[in-house]
Amino acid sequence: MDFEYTEEEQAFRQEVRDFLDENLTAANRRDANFMANWLKKVREKRWVGFSWPKEVGGGGGNIMQQVILKEEMASRKAPPLGTCMMGLAWVGPAIIQYGTEEQKQRFIPDILDSKYHWCTGYSEPNVGSDLASLQCKAVREGDFYIVNGTKIWTSLAPFASWISLLVRTSSNPESKHEGITALLVKMDSPGIEVRPIEIMAGGAVFAQVFFDEVKVPVDNRLGEEGNGWKVTISSLANERSSIGEVTAMYEKLERLKELVRKSRKNGKPARDDVGIRRQIAVFEARIEAMRLNGFRYLTKQIKGEPLSSETSVNKLHRANLEVEMTDFAVELLGQSGLQLRDQEGAVDGGSWATAALSWPDVAICGGTPNIQKNIIAERILGLPKD
């Protein structure tokens, strides 16, 4: 594995740094127009959808340039490169690969311009993480599909304008992975009901979405009928090196170190406690292992080799680390670690208590830990199926 950067890559890194020096205003000096101006500038640089083809409005950047861009942005705590998260992560790449020319012209510019949010209708009640067992059905009638069923734990659904929806269009497929179709559905379509799910920490980013005789134009089908599983797996394969996840974990570790520096244990500075210092070192070693593992995935991507089940290793590590680091912070703070937001005694705005109450989100997103363990055991280690 070669950790050295080429001259071209180093020049691009400097370009990103120069841009940040010129355009990234300190957080305490940003006015109401900062975010809009920021999005306009990074869009003009074609850094939103940086790895997407230039012909659809992307930057045409290669994988290493994308890694460099994200590293530099993260190191300066810059705002996101675009705010249409689901659109940039999964929906956009799927439309680029499988969409018609009309679909590309209709949806891609709005995703790049952060016009609205997308959500993804995958998980269903009583199905768990076995996505291929979905039961939400669509029956074709002329130029429309009629959709009936429900989706749950749909991220961003309470304020999304569109949903990338997986439905079953064949009731007797040869395998459960067949007969699934991907549809692009407007969230204000008649027959759609969104019921927000409030989490323990407050707020409602998730929702259960109900579909009752919802008419979806056939023109909104993404890919061929019955090819939805392939469309979904392909779109989820984007951004699988986990470099972004590792960067986020290092940020959380720095926040945790700062918390230790300003905390006390048994009347003494917490940073002098041997047990606390050892635990911080363990967290750092585990995150570094994630980083090196991510480089292994990245190397395969650069060589054009497909990524498959091995990415479950870092997903499992990420979920465990998120929970353990937050629990460590709450235990360190004692009673103060239980205070939310504006409650008396809350530390760091109650963010540690909020994170502790949000652990189901971390564990469930992207596949539960048990599912990741099964994937690792069966597909990597070759153990018998569960």
Q: Note the overall shape.
A: globular
Q: Measured on Cα atoms, how large is the radius of gyration?
A: 22 Å
In terms of DSSP E residues, the strand content is: 5-15%
CATH superfamily of the largest domain: Butyryl-CoA Dehydrogenase, subunit A, domain 3
> Assembly state here?
single chain
**Low-confidence residue ranges:** none
In total, the number of strands is 10
Feature tags:
44% helix; 3 domains; alpha+beta; 10 strands; Butyryl-CoA Dehydrogenase, subunit A, domain 3; 386 residues; globular; single chain; four-stranded mixed sheet; Butyryl-CoA Dehydrogenase, subunit A, domain 2; four-stranded antiparallel sheet
Folded structure, characterized:
It is a single chain. The protein has helices at 7-23, 34-44, 63-75, 85-98, 101-112, 228-236, 243-261, 274-302, 312-333, 351-357, 359-364, 369-380; strands spanning 118-121, 137-141, 144-151, 162-168, 180-186, 192-197, 206-217, 221-222, 264-265, 268-269. It is of the alpha+beta class and 386 residues long. It has 3 domains: 7-82, no CATH class; 118-227, Butyryl-CoA Dehydrogenase, subunit A, domain 2 (Beta Barrel); 240-380, Butyryl-CoA Dehydrogenase, subunit A, domain 3 (Up-down Bundle), CATH 1.20.140. The chain has a 4-stranded mixed beta sheet. A 4-stranded antiparallel beta sheet has the order 2-3-7-6, with no helix packed on it. The longest helix is centred in the C-terminal third of the chain and has 29 residues, at 274-302. It is globular.
